[in-house]
Amino acid sequence: MSDVRVSPPKRRSGLKTLLIVVALCGMMFFVASQVRDAMRPALGKIRALRSTKVEDRRAAAEGLVGLNLDDAKLAIPTLKDALGDPDHKTNIAILLALGEAGLTVARDPAGRSEARDAIRAVVGAITDPQESVRFESRRILKLFTFVPVGDAGPLYDPAPVARTLARLVIGDPSPMARSDAALTLILVARESPADPPAELAAALTATDLPGDVRGVAASLLGAFPKGHPKAFPSLVEALKDRDPKVRRGAAMGLAMLGPATAKPALPALIAMLSEPSGDPIPAPTPTMLISQATRPPFLSVLSLKATPDDPTPYSTWDPALSAAQAVGAMVSGLESPEGAIEALVAMLSADQAWRREASASILNRLGRKAATAAPAMVEALLRVIPDAQSRLAPDLIQAIAKASPHTPDAEGAVDALTKALSGASDSTIYAAANALVYFGPTASPALPMLRTLSQGPKGRIAAKAAETIAKIPRN
Questions:
Q1: 3-state helix/strand/coil string of 207-258
Q2: What confidence tens digit (pLDDT) does each residue in 408-439 have?
Q3: What is the DSSP string of 325-342?
Q4: DSSP state of 421
Q5: What span, in angstroms and rounded, lies between the C-alpha atoms of 230 and 224?
Q6: How many whole angstroms separate alpha carbon 334 and alpha carbon 308?
Q7: Which CATH superfamily is domain 352-475 in?
Q8: Residue among 124, 135, 202 nearest 174 (CA)
Q9: What secondary structure letter does DSSP report for 61?
Q10: Under 8 Å between Cβ of 93 and 99
Q11: Inter-residue contact 294 to 219 (CB < 8 Å)
Q12: Where are the alpha helices (DSSP H) in 107-147?
């Protein structure tokens, strides 16, 4: 009988084949992922946000900037989940990447859903325990307020955001954080259909709060354009407050509300134009910075810097300045100013230079509405023409040029402007040469002086004088 050999089962060789196949698949997957990451680097960085190594997460977050629309959409969910990283620097990097990605997708109608997710996470960080995180979240929110609403609707509900910011304005321990929260709230309020947060009205009447906090709350009440019926009674009442910071804030709030509050507010505001100024504050404070931001954009911003020749800083600490701004804002929308122009004219003779300049600036912006003030403005101009340090003349000259042409006061105005062509400062001379063109043939008496200036050594003034000569018709 011949031997029969039985082959052993091929289990070992089959297992080896399986291992080889698995290894090849793994290698192919690895190569494919490497190729994909090389073609789309954002994918690798998004995965790295889940790393257990803080340096990998931070590098990934820092690398997720400048994303295109598709990558930004893809990154937002993971960035949102990663926000709140225990490492502070990494958390800041994640917040910045999330804000940039949200802004990228917000500009595309198809990305509004992802943008809303991003901004919800950013708004949530406004109350983070870390002050730097709160600051960056407010900065990003400011940028979102400039994104057009479009047909897809708003990116966020402004009412709860405004309430959160109002609480920070009132209660954040950092003065600069309170100021920044106020600036952010102003931007949010621009598009808000809601009433002002109740927290602001409550703060205005809370006598246990510092005057500057109450004053800022008052100014912010005027930042909500749709909420003025509820805001202005509190603001008018606050004009009588004993604290000048509160009166200043109330006047700023009324300035933003404009003519809608004129009838009940004008008498108290006009009275404030001549109230004692008190002691000046020598340097900008957070509250002053808020004052600049809340001022209506069509009114000038007074400098806070002192000069060697004039050590008194021009600042918004004086309640009369805020009252003047409010009066100007209201008069611009009224047919009958009801004594407001006369009060601004009286302010031209104030002892304080900053009050005189504020009055001239506002009369300048009122244009023809200030026509009755022309004689007083001419008198004020004649007083400052010899003063090389005065900042008052250019605004007065522009105000006269807007208010006086084609009126009985035109000839007197031209006479004053002709004298200003010999003024002590170049800014006065230039402004006068520029203003005379608005008087047409009435400005003919100024032509000899303009010709002299046109041939003078000061190029800018000479060019303006020559330009004005060419535009004045001959009688």
A1: CCCCHHHHHHHHHHHCCCCCCHHHHHHHHHHHCCCCCHHHHHHHHHHHHHHH
A2: 999 999 999 999 999 989 999 999 999 999 99
A3: HHHHHHHTT-SS-TTHHH
A4: T
A5: 10
A6: 41
A7: Leucine-rich Repeat Variant (1.25.10.10)
A8: 135
A9: H
A10: no
A11: yes
A12: 112-124, 131-144
Q: At what angle do helices 175-190 and 158-171 cross, to 10 degrees?
A: 160
| C-alpha to C-alpha distance for 197 and 163, rounded to whole angstroms | 5
Nearest to 223 by CA among 235, 213, 211, 212: 235
Cβ atoms of 203 and 250 closer than 8 Å = no
List the structure tokens of 328: 């100007």
Question: Residue 303 carries which side chain, given as an amino acid letter?
Answer: S
Cα dihedral 209/211/217/221 (nearest 10): 130
User: Could you give the maximum distance between any two Cα atoms of the chain, in Å?
Assistant: 145
pLDDT tens digits along 122-148: 999 988 988 899 999 999 998 888 887
Q: In the chain, which segments carry CATH 1.25.10.10?
A: 31-156, 352-475
The owner of tokens 């709160």 is: 134
| CB of 269 closer than 8 Å to CB of 338 | no
Distance (Å, rounded) from C-alpha 475 to C-alpha 473? 6
Q: Which fold has domain 31-156?
A: Leucine-rich Repeat Variant (1.25.10)
Is 305 a residue whose pLDDT tops 60? no
Alpha-carbon gap, residue 421 to 436, rounded angstroms: 10
Is the pLDDT score of 440 beyond 80? yes
Residue 96 CA to residue 62 CA, distance in Å, equals 8
Taking only the tens place, the pLDDT of each residue in 257-302 is 777 666 678 888 888 888 887 555 443 343 333 344 333 332 232 2
